Amino acid sequence: MHRIKKCFVVIKIIVFLLSPVLLKGQNSPKDDFTLSAQAHVGYIIAHRNDMANLIKGHIYGVELNYIFRTNGCKTWHKYYKYPELGVCFLHLYLANPQQLGNLEALYPYTNIRLNKLSKKTSFNLRLATGLSYISKPFDRITNHQNVAIGSHVNAFVNLRLSASRMISDAWRLDAGVGLSHASNGAYSTPNLGLNMATVNLGIGYVFGNKKCTYIEDTITPHVKKWQPSLIGVFGSKQLETPGGKEYLAYSLQANMLRGLNYKNSLGGGLEIFYNNSTIQRWADDGIYTAKFSNIVQAGAKICYAYNFYNLSLPVEFGVYFYKKQPVNGMIFNRIGFRYKVTKHIIANVTLLTHFAKADYFEWGLGYQF
């Protein structure tokens, strides 16, 4: 309770100290933004038995958000009920200063409105990804018990259900519950990752034009059609022994999704994998073979994508139907981002996982027909 009170004191200091600076020159509607500061309390989820010794108590934190409102000046604003776009800086005390230390994260996000447009109250889904810094990662000499994180710098993902209530023309209350994940995609092992659940509460202040005027726009009916694409990706990973060799992995994906509406697409796909670390796994088992047929893997998947203008958030569930190496099981998953650079070219940044364990980040390009 003492830590929570301290967090709220920090929040008030941040808002009021920055207010004079941020108010300067904010008389134009184009300079409208909201500054929101919030306190967090929660816990680390032990998704592996090996992590139980790392959890020493509740985690606490504070965040500062810089938020922009959309008002309908672009057609896609209306599709998503005038979402908010923001940037967040987050600090979390992980309740284990010797083995985990603290976490700092910086990430952009969008607040997707879940209810009808209201001037007072909005219910939102926050989708966010960025970078985080862990102050106490694994070290084979000084911190060998930290099996969760093997690097200082990691990817960071946040999903949050939140509510915002305007209590005056300028001030608002923010509250929510969310899940966060930090890991490096096996670029540096160990890499079980940190999964954190927190509740948050805070205050915000609107600068510039206090009363946002929403521009109504006619939405063109969505044309449902199949959208085939071909995407090639590569990634880098280590095996479980920390500090070991890095291995390259490749995948070629053939996807077929049907746009159900402007926001949602559903479909399936096939893909083929080639992972150089599989050669080492065969060697560790005493069955060294470099035959292509023993290394290559193939799978089929169900694909869903949430489309946000040119940005797509894929969620995929797949099963290997051809796989000789039994490590990681027969089921794979994928989350991440795909962005339409042009009408046909797609940039891909995704994370391949097997259940709750991250395998490696995938970087690549694709073509949508």
Give the SSE map.
Blueprint: H1 2-23, E1 33-45, E2 59-69, H2 75-79, E3 84-93, E4 102-113, E5 121-134, E6 153-166, E7 171-183, E8 194-207, E9 226-238, E10 246-259, E11 264-275, H3 277-284, H4 292-295, E12 296-308, E13 311-322, E14 331-340, E15 345-354, E16 357-368
Antiparallel strand pairs: 1-2, 1-8, 2-3, 3-4, 4-5, 5-6, 6-7, 7-8, 9-10, 9-16, 10-11, 11-12, 12-13, 13-14, 14-15, 15-16
Describe this entry's structure for a reader.
The protein has 369 residues and is mainly β. The chain has two domains: 2-207, Porin (Beta Barrel), CATH 2.40.160.20; 226-368, Porin (Beta Barrel). 11% of the residues lie in helices and 53% in strands. The chain has four helices and 16 strands. An eight-stranded antiparallel barrel has the order 1-2-3-4-5-6-7-8. Strands 9-10-11-12-13-14-15-16 form an eight-stranded antiparallel barrel. A hairpin with an 8-residue loop joins strand 13 (311-322) and strand 14 (331-340). The longest helix is centred in the N-terminal third of the chain and has 22 residues, at 2-23. It is flat and about 70 Å long. It starts with a helix and ends with a strand.
Any key phrases for this structure?
single chain, 369 residues, 2 domains, eight-stranded antiparallel beta barrel, mainly beta, 4 helices, Porin
| Number of helical elements | 4
Structural class: mainly beta
CATH top level of the largest domain? Mainly Beta
Indicate the radius of gyration in whole angstroms: 23 Å
The major beta sheet can be summarized as:
8 strands, antiparallel, barrel
Mean pLDDT: 84
Strand order of the largest sheet: 1-2-3-4-5-6-7-8
First-last Cα distance: 56 Å
Number-wise, the strands total 16
Order of helices and strands: HEEHEEEEEEEEEHHEEEEE
CATH topology of the largest domain: Porin
Which blocks of ≥5 consecutive residues have pLDDT under 50?
2-29
Gross morphology: flat
Helical content stands at: 10-25%
Quickly give the CATH architecture of the largest domain.
Beta Barrel
- The proportion of strand residues reads over 45%
Number of domains: 2
